[in-house]
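REVIEWER CHECKLIST
Item 1: Sequence provided? yes
Item 2: Single chain? yes
Item 3: Sequence as submitted:
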Amino acid sequence: MSGVAQAVHRDDLDAKIPLIQSCRAVSLRAAQTLKWEKGMSDAPILDFALDRLTLGRAALYAAILQSSSLDPCHSLLQHAVDSLRRAGQQDYLPRGLLTRAWLRSLTGARTGPESAQSDLDEAWEIAERGPMPLFLADIHLHRARLFGPPAPKAIGEQYPWESPDADLAAARRLIEKHGYGRRLEELQDAEAAARKWARQAE
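Item 4: Structure as written out by the authors:
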């Protein structure tokens, strides 16, 4: 999420072009791998699921970067989540739920059943039971990014959890405690956005 989210926030075309090209390259590789696996009688269900998730993620990121239709992403990510469930690997399912939550938040399915909130809550239950602290950090970041200001103010909804600041603080504690360095840039970007929102609200 980090590189795509930051490029979108900057609205920097030069930053977007290589990311879009990367999405296309990833999609081609995942589609080819999926084709090979379909020809194998003993290919694990999890392999199919992860390839479908890769296709769904690449399609979502490319659509966001290009401001194009999100419609093709729905079936790709639904197939990915369904496949992850069939694979029975709980430690992989949050990956699909987090990505689908992002898509659902963008298409207006934010709260209630079959929404971004329900996906984030399900991912939380799995990660907390694990325990899976790195997924918990990711969930805190997704909560703050998808539901933090200005989104609730813009559409008149309440933040579904304690607060964006609390989620960002919890994400920082987990990232620092577990050395989750690849999320530091995204965390810092989210914290900077939160400070900007706070100044605008004053």
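Item 5: Key structural point noted by reviewer: The two ends are 29 Å apart (CA to CA).
Item 6: Recommendation: ____
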